[in-house]
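Risk register update: the risk that structure generation would not scale has been downgraded. Supporting records follow, first protein first.
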Amino acid sequence: MGEDYSLEKCKMLAEKAASANDLPYECKKYPEAVKAANIKRSETQKQAYAGMQGGLAAQAAKKSGRETHAQIQRRLTSTRRFTKQK
């Protein structure tokens, strides 16, 4: 009926999964695989904001789900403001 999930296969899946909820039910019986899936991948997130002036603020806004000032400004500014015909 289902695939046979070994510990090695579950560990491989856990490395690519975002959380333990993404693992198949058969892999949840292996605590090592569940633990590997729950590890926060914060280092790659920090690299995405490297060199930004407001990097810490952008990370905090992304975690809380709020838009940054620049995103709000882009959303509220019409792009055809100076080019539309009268």
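Supporting record for the second protein:
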Amino acid sequence: MSSHNHPSPANDPRLPLAARPYKSPLVSPQDLPVDYSGFIAVIRGVLGVMFRYKLCSWLAIIFCAQSLANMRSIENDLKQISMAMM
């Protein structure tokens, strides 16, 4: 067996004491990226209602659910979530 397969602890260049957990930076609500899935849900919903396309309506529901699942802000209240589902 060669020593290349199993490095010895004395030759390990990593420092376990220097490892720190990742802390995500704080971002203000104005600087958050645009919610494209919510925008697509609105467009598909309007197209589904105006032109009576069932596929657009189903895609709007799917994109709306995806947008609600990917919410990062806990500050959104029940009213905003219920209006999104309508």
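Helices lie at 36-51, 54-69, 78-85. On this basis the risk owner (M.S.) recommends closing the item.
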